[in-house]
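Reopening: Kinesin motor domain-containing protein still failing for me.
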Amino acid sequence: MENIQVAVRIRPDPEPSIWAIHDQHIFLNNQMRKPPNGQGRTTFAFDHCFSQDSKNTDIYSKEVKSLVLGSTNGINGTIFLYGQTGSGKTYTMLGKENDEGVLLQSFKDLFAKIEADLNKTYVLRCSYFEIYNEQIFDLLKPSSKLQETLQVNEDQKKEFFSERTHRIISIIHQ
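Support: Ran it again with your exact input. Result attached.
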């Protein structure tokens, strides 16, 4: 498994005269300036490129599932979604009834693995937070409570953490 993989979901679908997706590359036609390659376009390469028509199940199976299953072997993993407001981050994480988000798919696979492996004891810690305007909000906190910003701290091992951003869970609906 690679240390860091980057996948993009392009939304809305690209305007063919301006940009295009091909395999793991995005080609951007530069109308205003000529890029260094002198060909009138810039190429961006990623581990995976998904169109707006991609299903969350595709994204989960290609990008997230290996992180989830790796975590059952003690490997830490992070799913980090980045984009402007309305770009589809929440949809990718939470999904809809006919297209489950990667979060629910992750929990289903985690609990299936735990239930099948009776020889190990697992402790699941889940964090789910949002960074918005340089403030951190705990998304596991009940939404009826006022959202307070969380502070990021550094421990003696130079690892970063934020207080109250994880919950111990024992059933999938938690």
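The chain is about 20% helix and 25% strand. If you still see a failure, please send the error message rather than a screenshot.
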